[in-house]
Amino acid sequence: MGAVPKQRISKGRQGRRRSHHALARVPMDTCPRCGATKRTHHVCPECGTYAGVPVYEPRKKSSE
Ligand SMILES: [Zn+2]
Q1: How far away, in angstroms, is 2 Cα from ligand 1 center?
Q2: pTM
Q3: Angstrom distance (rounded) from CA 63 to CA 10
Q4: What is the Å distance from ligand 1's center to 55 Cα?
Q5: Distant-in-sequence contacts of 7-10, Cβ < 8 A, 24+ apart
Q6: For residue 40, how far is its CA from the centre of ligand 1 (angstroms)?
């Protein structure tokens, strides 16, 4: 037999455990070069720059 709980976990205790389960918001920022919404401390996916410095050439979208 596998692991079997010795005692029932009360709803209050279950809730207290799950009070830490919420997902945190991803901090977002705007790119200083193109103004697109990007993650903080990440290279902008729209223009490929970080703090105004080009890091890589952004991929051309198929619609352009
Ligand atoms: Zn950008």
Answers
A1: 53
A2: 0.60
A3: 55
A4: 11
A5: none
A6: 12
Cα 27 to ligand 1 centre (Å): 16
Enter the tokens of residue 9: 């976990």
Amino acid (one-letter) located at 47:
C
Q: What are phi and psi of 30, to 5 degrees?
A: -105, 140
Q: 9-64 pLDDT, tens per residue?
A: 999 999 999 999 999 999 999 999 999 999 999 999 999 999 888 998 887 765 55
Choose among 26, 27, 43, 44: nearest CA to 35. 44
What is the distance in A from the centroid of ligand 1 to the CA of 46?
A: 5
